[in-house]
Amino acid sequence: MLMTFLAIMTPFLIFIRPLQRNIFFVLYYATMILAAYVTETYYFRAVDFSHKAFLIFIVYHLICINMATFLAYGADKRAAINGSWRIPEAHLHALEFLGGWPGAYFAQKIFRHKTKKKSFRIMFWLMLVLQLAAVYIILKYLGFISF
Asked: For residue 125, is it within any domain?
């Protein structure tokens, strides 16, 4: 599972520019490596990649990316209040697209951050639509849905 995670997610870190310097994606990456290592060490003794391991990987991914996205919004709100360095919007949108939109949505509501800027809100909803379209295309390609 650890090697599979590294094989899947390392290209994101290498080729997607907003993720290269995104400290919150690095936090997500580190927590996923830790989760994969613990799961591999204590729960899955075999090296083979099963459906159950894949589902656990998806659950870990969603938990970790939403935590990282929520923390990114909180850090950006704190930076906005203090007048210090801000997190670029492209970094926030990249985290949203990778599955962190629920964390982003709740962070917007809890921190009351990034809720008034219309261009940001439009891009937020566009990231959600693009992610849902990507999931649809993948499920259709794998044969899980037929319409």
From this structure: yes
Does 147 reside within a domain? no
Say yes or no to pLDDT of 88 above 80: yes
Rg over CA atoms, the chain: 17
**Domain total in the chain:** 1
Residues 6-27 have pLDDT tens digits of: 666 677 667 766 666 778 877 8
Q: Retrieve residue 63's tokens.
A: 């938990």
48-76 pLDDT per residue, tens: 566 676 777 788 888 888 999 999 999 98
CB-side neighbour CA atoms (13 Å) of 71: 13
Report if residue 75 sits inside a domain.
yes
- Residue 108, CA distances (Å) to 44, 73, 105, 124 in order: 37, 7, 5, 11
Q: Is the entire prediction scored with pTM above 0.70?
A: yes
Work out the angle between the directed axes of helices 101-111 and 118-142 (0-180°, nearest 10).
Answer: 160
- 89/18 Cα distance (integer angstroms): 9
Q: In 3D, which of 20, 23, 53, 26 has the Cα closest to residue 38?
A: 53
The domain of 28 spans 2-142
